[in-house]
Amino acid sequence: MIVRGAVLREMGLPRPYAESRPLRVEEVELAPPGPGELLVRIRAAGLCHSDLSVIDGSRPRVMPMLLGHEATGEVLESAAPGFAPGDVVACAFVPACGACGPCAEGRAALCEAGAAANTAGTLLGGTRRLNGFHHHLGVSGFADHAVLSARSAVKIDPSLPPEIAALFGCAVMTGVGAVVNTAQVRAGRSAVVFGLGGVGLSALLGAVLVGAHPVVAVDVVPEKLALARSLGASVVVDARDPSAVEEVRAATAGGADYALETVGSAQVLEQAYAATRRGGTTITVGLPHPSQSFSVPAVSLVAEERTVKGSYLGSSVPSRDIPRYIALYRAGRLPVDRLLTATVGLDDLNPAFDDLAAGTSIRQVLLF
Question: Is the pTM of this model over 0.90?
C-alpha cells in the first residue's frame, strides 16, 4: 500500500526548520506485515526530543528514515497471536524479543535484539517494510499507516483520546518509569527534576504520585516552571540562575535524595549530581550526543556512597507499565493531559519542531 509520511533524508539541516524543511511529506510504499507483525492505522504521534535529536544530528541514525516513535493506532491486519483487527495499541520504541538475557531478567528496555534492530533501522525481525526508507525505533509513526512488530505494541483502552494515548508510549513511560522503576523513589524522600519537557514533567508527575517531598523542578523557561508548580512541585528553580544548584540543595536540606536529569546534557548531569546529598542517587534519562562525557569527583562515589544510574525507556516493561499508567491517569492520579501543548497536522511538523527546539512547547501531537 502507499502511505503518506514525514521522511528525513539528511540530518543536521539548520534551523529554522520551517525554512530548511528537513522533514518532507512523501508517498512511501509500505509492504504488508510479515509473521509476528501488525499493520496499524496511526491515529496520533507525539513530537519528542528523540525525534528532534535525529533531525539535528545529535543522535545519529541511518538515513533516509521515516520518523516518529511515540504513537498510537488501530490494528487493521494482524499476523501475530494476541492481536486482532480493531485492537487499539500504544507503540513502545524498544521492541522486546522476550528471549535474550535482559528480557529474561525483566529488563525489556535493554533487549539486545531490539537495540540491534533500532540501530539498523529495521523491525525486530531484521526486515524493512518501508520501501527505500529505514524505520525509526521500530515504529515510524509520522505516517498514516505503519507496519511494526507485535513486540512493539501494547493493547490499550480504545476509548482513550488518541492525542493522550500516544503520550504513554514514550514521555509517560520514560518519565514516570524513571521514578518508579529506575530510582524507586520512596514516599517522603526528596526529588529534583532537571528539565521540564514531556519526559521531565512526566517524571515530576511520577515523583508527586509516589509521595516524594519536597519535589523540586528546574528549567530555564518560566512558563514550564509555572506549570510544574501547578502539577505539584514544592519548589521551582530557574536554571539560568548561577546559584541554581545551591538553591536546590537549600530546598532539600543539603541535597536531594534523588535527582533526575532529562535534558540530555552532560553539563546538566553534572549539576544534577552536585545537587544530591550524601548517599543520593542521580538518574540520567536524557540522550546527549555520543561525544559528550561528564566527570564527577571519583572519591564521592565511595566516601559519600553516591549512585549514578541510566534509565532507558524508564526501565519499563511496556506490556506491564503502559496499562498501569493509563489506569492511574483514568483515576486522576497522573494528569498527563496537562502536558499536551497542541495538535498539529502532517504538513506542520517542521515549524512544530522549531517550537520544540525553542522550548516553547511541551508535547505537540500529530493527529491523523
Answer: yes
